[in-house]
Design a protein that fits this description.
Helices cover 31% and strands 24% of the residues. By secondary structure, it is an alpha/beta fold. It has nine helices and eleven strands. The protein has an eight-stranded mixed sheet with strand order 3-2-1-7-8-11-9-10, with helices on both faces. It has a three-stranded mixed sheet with strand order 4-6-5.
Length: 246
């Protein structure tokens, strides 16, 4: 019999599938084949995992979450809820393999805003923890996975994750869902990052509430305006992109 934590985890996945990340999950599940591998990079509390597990029912899901307590939680909850094709790894994905400082904004042990980038956060308090970073190219080298999709949510570290995944991208041409916000960037603009992915033979779109907007129509002044209090929660603020291989 499932306990409260298990039901809460499954309910979180249900909300993601039917409301919070509805379009993103639809794009992923429509693209994936049952025997493929999908990567959830920055899995956090695992809202994508139930849907991804079902989408690749004869394949594998790899969830990378560097926050130690969240990684431990995901390992336990995936076992309890019988997501047997999900592998949880407590690593931060980047462009190099090394010990790195993970910055966790807020005054709690975990945060969806945790990042390898030492960005200025909206919170007064920031915790830091030493974690192991990897490159996805090295991790999956010679493992023979048919990688069908990648979902990135790494709070400003997107470019470096992509740099560490170039062999995978060139070999498998996975669908890429990527959260990318100017407020999290330290040395790149969102436009530079999405144009970089597009240059790898991808066709990119901004995910809005009503439609997919071509990258050429993305305007950070309009779609990621940083004006006003809690601007990132405004209904016309969009931060998720999808890239289709061409």
């Amino acid at each position: 019999m499932m306990g409260f934590k298990s039901l809460r985890f499954l309910y979180r996945g249900f909300k993601a599938q039917h409301r919070d990340q509805k379009i993103e999950i639809q794009l992923l599940t429509k693209h994936l084949k049952h025997n493929q591998t999908v990567l959830d990079i920055g899995a956090n509390k695992g809202s994508y995992l139930p849907s991804l597990s079902r989408a690749v029912s004869h394949g594998q899901v790899y969830a990378f979450e560097p926050q130690p307590s969240l990684a431990a939680y995901l390992k336990t909850i995936c076992k309890i809820t019988q997501l047997t094709n999900v592998t949880v790894e407590p690593f931060a994905c980047s462009d190099i393999s090394s010990k790195r400082t993970l910055y966790i904004p807020g005054d709690k042990e975990t945060s969806p805003g945790a990042s390898l980038e030492s960005i200025v956060t909206e919170s007064e308090y920031t915790t830091s923890v030493l974690v192991q970073s990897i490159t996805l190219d090295e991790y999956f080298e010679n493992k023979g996975h048919n990688i069908g999709a990648m979902k990135l949510d790494v709070e400003g570290h997107e470019f470096k994750v992509l740099q560490g995944s170039l062999n995978i991208i060139k070999k498998y041409a996975p669908l890429i869902i990527c959260e990318c916000e100017q407020r999290h960037q330290t040395d790149k603009t969102v436009s530079e990052i999405v144009n970089f992915v597009s240059s790898l033979h991808y066709r990119g779109f901004l995910i809005t509430r009503k439609k997919l907007l071509p990258i050429s129509e993305f305007d950070p002044v309009i779609h990621q305006s940083q004006v006003g209090e809690r601007y990132w929660n405004k209904p016309d603020y969009f931060n998720n992109f999808v890239f289709f291989p061409t």
